[in-house]
Design brief:
Rossmann fold, eight-stranded mixed beta sheet, globular, disordered N terminus
Length: 283
């Protein structure tokens, strides 16, 4: 087993650390304190190479902190500045249980989960497993909606990412080309975006991706008890936008927003619009 220390100099701001599962350091950012009067907002990042909570949500979580919300932004094990052991099975169930540890440690009894891609799948799974703790869900291009065999081969972004990971490319040009598949407009991928993610990718062991397993929820989405806001970019190359209609048809209390201007990173491509839509939903 190996467990890397936090990268130095850090590609993202350094927040706080919590020991989880008795052995590993989980990195997270936190603003404010848990309150019985208002749920905590928990921002859950996606699974792309080099991902972290900060790189996925740095244009969003400060806005909600300024609105008076308690916000928690974790890096899953294997991502960001969290430990990256090479002997873990990096399943959505692992991430759900580690998140449960984090929220307990921070005194969070009521939360709104805000998840993109893998983070959306984790939000669904957490909401189905611990519904008493979750008041609302916000998901952007979430995973877990339908069996991958029915759609994954059609998605150009997934094919590009699979080849990138398999070949373990490390050069900046290839990394930029991968990230440009994620968004609708290539100019969204600035040097700062690359600088926040490439050093993390260089530290991630193969197991983070080779052992990844995401629960598929399908009809179980009908069992979600809390209101859901689902946002999707029409130009998403990773998760098919038709999944938004599946979510709309299954979830009892759901609002769906589809934007022609976004790809897979709705919250970064249209941050002001995203922030307003989520704030309206929360209120």
């Amino acid at each position: 087993m190996s467990s890397q220390p936090a990268i130095f100099p850090s590609p993202i701001p350094v927040g706080q650390f919590l020991q989880v599962r008795g052995a590993y350091r989980l990195h997270y950012h936190e603003v404010g304190h848990a309150s019985a009067d208002r749920p905590t907002l928990v921002f859950l990042h996606g699974s792309g190479p080099g991902a972290s909570g900060y790189s996925n949500f740095h244009l969003n979580f400060p806005f909600f902190a300024d609105q008076g919300f308690h916000v928690v932004v974790p890096d899953y094990l294997g991502y960001g500045l969290s430990d990256k052991p090479d002997d873990l099975q990096y399943t959505s169930t692992l991430h759900v249980e580690v998140l449960r540890e984090l929220l307990s440690a921070r005194g969070v009894t009521q939360a709104v989960l805000v998840g993109n891609s893998l983070g959306g799948a984790i939000a669904f799974q957490y909401g189905l497993t611990y519904p008493e703790q979750i008041s609302q869900l916000v998901v952007m291009g979430p995973g877990g909606v339908e069996e991958p065999a029915l759609w994954a081969g059609q998605m150009s972004g997934l094919r590009c990412m699979g080849a990138f990971i398999q070949e373990h490319k490390t050069d900046r040009a290839s990394f930029r080309a991968l990230l440009e598949h994620i968004v609708a407009a290539p100019h969204t991928i600035t040097d700062a975006v690359i600088d926040s993610r490439l050093p993390v990718w260089l530290e991630q062991p193969p197991a983070v991706f080779s052992s990844m397993k995401v629960e598929v929820f399908a009809e179980r989405l009908a069992h979600l008890q809390m209101p859901v806001l689902c946002l999707w970019g029409q130009q998403d190359n990773f998760l098919p936008v038709r999944h938004a209609l599946i979510v709309a048809g299954l979830v009892k209390d759901v609002r769906v927003v589809i934007s022609s201007r976004s790809g897979h990173w709705f919250m970064l491509e249209e941050p002001d619009y995203f922030n307003r839509e989520v704030l309206t939903f929360l209120n």
